[in-house]
Amino acid sequence: MTSSASLDLKLYGVLIAVAVLVPLFAPNYIQTVAVMWLMILMAMTWDITGGQMGYNSLGNVVFFGIGMYASAIVQISQFSDVADYTASFGAIVVDFTPGQYFTGLGLGLAAGGIAAAIFALLIGPAMLGLRGPYFAIGTLGLAIAVAELVSGWEYVGGGGGISMPVYPGPPAAGPFTFYILLGLLTLAAHLFVRWLYSTQFGLAINAIRDDEDKAEAMGIHTNRYKTIAWAVAAFFMGVGGAIFGNMSGFIEPLEVAFPTTTFGIFMVAMALLGGKGTLWGPVLGAVLFHIVKQVTWTYLLGWQWVALGAIIIINIVYFQQGILGWAQDKWPEAFGLTVDRGGAARPAAGEAAE
């Protein structure tokens, strides 16, 4: 077994151990750790296009919101009229049976991922025709526009939002269920992107990142690869949004479903902090960012944005390659890298940089 593969197994073991131990020994922190799984998922999915492909998006949160609303519509429409359910005058109150709730939840999670992926496939060819800052600003505008459109869509409650179906069980059972779902989704997403990066698809999107014009000249259908990569990120973000909407219990367009100024920025900051374009960098960045965010929100209320802003500034000025990139340069052998005569770290034979 290579040193890189051994390190991977250890890291997966740490994540699984945390997932198992938190409910047993720190049940009061279940929701906090569940949000950490979501943060890891956001950083990983952003890195598919931002790190591996070189297309820095500021609007991936749009897939999060689309998945959330698609799930809500499917869950409610199975057993009630959505327009009546979301009416501002409270036309009806629906009590979902356990069977109805879990049937709707399963279908809703699938619908959230599929709806987000379809949206990415439809809008991708046009948006991904933009490059550099134009793509970043375009995606940010897209997220803001979709949020405003949903805010005026009365069928789903408009700006008043939607109260999600209540989890049918003991109060502690709901958070634990969503904790498990987010943990499994994050693990599945990480295993999937690990496989994806090891295929020809991974080589193609890396070629796009390095020089898109040369990649096109070599016969790579760049727009096709870019659109598919964005759709993969959208699918996992959509499912994550569907789970988070149910965990929150209430969906509101600007602050919960399409939070461009919080989650939309956080996912970029987390990937940069850990090291974009690496397999484990977004995971590391998300964990550290989430810990700092929770500590500052708890003990430095009023200064939390200053602390997070300082982290971003220090990261950009002193650690542009991220923590993992810096560690790979300092201790290359620990990551299965060799150093050539010029001092540049590169993967050893048969290994890939993590």
Automatic annotation (TrEMBL):
Keyword annotations of the record: Cell membrane, Membrane, Transmembrane, Transmembrane helix
GO cellular component: plasma membrane
One Pfam family in the UniProt entry: BPD_transp_2
Keyword Transmembrane helix: yes
GO function terms (MF aspect): branched-chain amino acid transmembrane transporter activity
Keyword Lipoprotein: no
Protein name: Amino acid/amide ABC transporter membrane protein 2, HAAT family (TC 3.A.1.4.-)
